[in-house]
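Issue 218. Parser rejects a valid record. Input:
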Amino acid sequence: MNLVAGTDEVGRGALAGPVIAASVILKKEIPGLKDSKKLTEKKRNELSELILENSYFGFGSVSNTEIDEINILKASLLAMKRAILNLPIKPALVLVDGIYKPDLNIPMKTIIGGDSIEDVISAA
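Output the parser choked on:
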């Protein structure tokens, strides 16, 4: 099995609330994955079920209080770190959407627009 995880966050652009990240390792290919903002609600829900059934996943969150203490960029990276650490198995490589990556002793590659071109990031 190819233990490549994809990681992405949501909530970084919001004015209030937590930032949440997910990290996903797909057990098999799932057709139709792409940037969730480019999917209909129905398709997002269908793919979400397939992802949950066919992947290893972890979530991480950072509260609004923590965001206020460390800033939104650091909070996004911390949420990603927590998501990766919450995976049930350790990935060999993590693909991260964007230009910044969390501080972990795991090989990582950042990809600008990764949620549009890498299925594991789209799944996250």
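Fixed in the parser; the record now loads. The mean pLDDT is 91.
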